[in-house]
Amino acid sequence: xxxxxLVIVGGGPAGLAGACAAVEEGVKNILVxxxxxxxxxxxxxxVHNGFxxxxxxxxxxxxxxxxxxxxxxxxxxxTCKTETTVLDITSTRLLTALNSADGLRRISCKSIxxxxxxxxxxxxxxPIRGTRPAGVITAGTAQKLMNQEGCHVxxxxxxxxxxxxxxxxxxxxxxxxxxxxxxxxxxxxSNGLPRNIVQCLNDFNIPLLFNHTVTEVHGKERxxxxxxxxxxxxxxxxxxxxxxxxxDTLMLSVGLIPENELSKGAGIILDKTTKGPLVDENLQTxxxxxxxxxxxLHVHDLVDNVTxxxxxxxxxxxxxxxxxxxxxxxxxxxxxxx
Amino acid sequence: xxxxxxxxxxxxxxxxxSVQASYQGQELILEGNQCxxxxxxxxxxxxxxxxxxxxxxxxxxxxxxxxxxxxSGPIPKDYxxxxxxxxxxxxxxxxxxxxxxIIDNLLDSGVAVIASCDS
Lengths: 338, 119
What we know:
The structure holds two protein chains of two kinds.
Chain A: E1 4-9, H1 13-24, E2 30-33, E3 49-51, E4 60-61, H2 62-75, E5 79-81, E6 85-89, E7 94-99, E8 103-114, E9 118-120, E10 129-130, E11 136-138, H3 139-149, E12 156-160, H4 164-175, E13 179-184, H5 194-201, E14 208-209, E15 212-218, E16 225-230, E17 243-246, E18 249-252, E19 256-258, H6 261-265, E20 290-292, H7 303-322, H8 330-337
Parallel strand pairs in A: 1-2, 1-8, 2-5, 8-20, 10-15, 11-18, 12-13, 12-18, 13-14
Antiparallel strand pairs in A: 3-4, 6-7, 7-8, 9-19, 15-16, 16-17
Helix pairs in contact in A: 1-2, 1-7, 3-4, 4-5
Chain B: E1 6-9, E2 18-24, E3 27-31, H1 36-47, E4 50-51, E5 54-59, E6 62-71, E7 75-76, H2 80-89, E8 101-103, E9 113-115
Antiparallel strand pairs in B: 1-2, 2-3, 4-7, 5-6, 6-9, 8-9
């Protein structure tokens, strides 16, 4: 027998929306698994506003948006386990989860929604030469450390990448009394929202350098400066254009990648462009009964759209469960479990 | 009023409409906004720019325990750094409920600083 009709991996906005939508379609036995101490996902560290303008018609902060869905999930009586990590999912929807209360559990699911969000591209994947001092940090990590743990990440910061996270953190640093030397962007334009260029950079006279990248980091124990170079159309640094910027922190906002370890483990085919699962029009992956939504599927700009996508996944999973499509894989599952 | 056209980005919603603003006599003419909220924003921005302020405060005097806070409405842009000084100076005691008023009438603006989440 199956332990749950639907297990949702990730209790952020995508997973919570999926859970609510599935309940509204009549699915009863649902479990949401979240590895952090609380539900809400990335929203908990996004103390700024601008969330929910489309979905709620209100200008909410990240925690406020999360609270709306946490309340809904509680009101619908959906079981959520926090501090629970999913270690593995098989192609027959056997899920292995770990927490200190229940230990290691094997859970068999009629359907699964993958909603575990995304990761930041880190320094290791960038062609930056030089020493390896303290003070090189990704923008999302800095956001979590500053906003949730009160850490002091640096005083004089160069930000590489002008995507929204970098822009939001530029403002955050300035509001905390730090200096943002420049935001450095290799393209001739930013892919962040225009409103963020205005309210995060222009408002504080933070220079935005297009067509530039960071090529070296200097410093022994701690970052002392970076070298930036102009780049050609092919994004290769142009020699002779090097400039040194004194700073004690290099903050990286250079891309987000869907969390895909569990997807790969289940034999899910990933899309080469998004790096997230390949899905059909129902958001179902190539593995029967496994659906994906939110940043785990592809990186989103707006949480309002994440919510709508999560709801779609919830409805698809509900239809899958109600139509008993899972029956054809039961023989495979029993064989693996025996 | 000078008769030049200024281009501004509306920051009310993620669309970020590029709006051309010019004066014809006393009247402000706008082109490019895709909704009425843009009219209010641009008019305000050209006369008395305001911004929402969001930040965190320590709970119970513990730097590592953070509470996300926000202004209940926008405040004049010039008030941002003085507001942050005021916010830093107060001690917030847990437990705190979402929407609880942390500072009433911040810098006489009529706007409050409220908790963004339960502590």
